[in-house]
Amino acid sequence: MKKTLILLAVGLVSISFANQQLAQLKGCMACHDLKTKKVGPAFASVAKKYAGKPDAVNYLVNKIKKGGSGVWGSVPMPPQTVSDAEAKQLAQWILSIK
């Protein structure tokens, strides 16, 4: 049981790290940071704002793919070049940040 829990924890850390790598690869980290506002909001702030909302993943997928403005200030976020699967992976990862 202990070995299973350790392997599960390692797997979750690996998934989280992989999603952060995807965010870096796709250029998200140029404007966003995990905990600090840059050009756009910190991912932790986004996670907090949409925590518990049942449509949060789909909402963020749409924002990532289509861009948007006005939610976090006047600086618009341009549409991002990501697949639907990548956008969903990024949205789920963002929502997991504490």
Question: Can you walk through the features of this model?
Answer:
By secondary structure, the chain is mostly helical. It is 57% helix and 0% strand. Helix 3 (56-66) crosses helix 4. The longest helix has 24 residues, at 2-25. The chain is globular and about 50 Å long. The two termini are 27 Å apart. Residues 4-15 have low confidence and may be disordered.
Short description:
This protein is mostly helical. Helices cover 57% and strands 0% of the residues.
Count every helix, treating DSSP H or I runs of 4 or more residues as helices: 4
**Percent range for helical residues?**
55-70%
CATH architecture: Orthogonal Bundle
Annotated CATH homologous superfamily: Cytochrome c-like domain
Order of helices and strands: HHHH
Low-confidence stretches: 4-15
Main beta sheet: none
Mean pLDDT: 87
In angstroms, what is the radius of gyration?
Answer: 14 Å
Determine and state the CATH class: Mainly Alpha
CATH topology: Cytochrome Bc1 Complex, Chain D, domain 2
Count the E strands: 0
Structural class estimated from helices and strands = mainly alpha
> What is the 3D shape?
globular
Tally of domains: 1
Residues in β-strands, percent: under 5%
End-to-end Cα distance, whole Å, is 27 Å
Topology:
Elements: H1 2-25, H2 43-50, H3 56-66, H4 84-96
Features:
0% strand, mainly alpha, Cytochrome Bc1 Complex, Chain D, domain 2, 98 residues, 4 helices
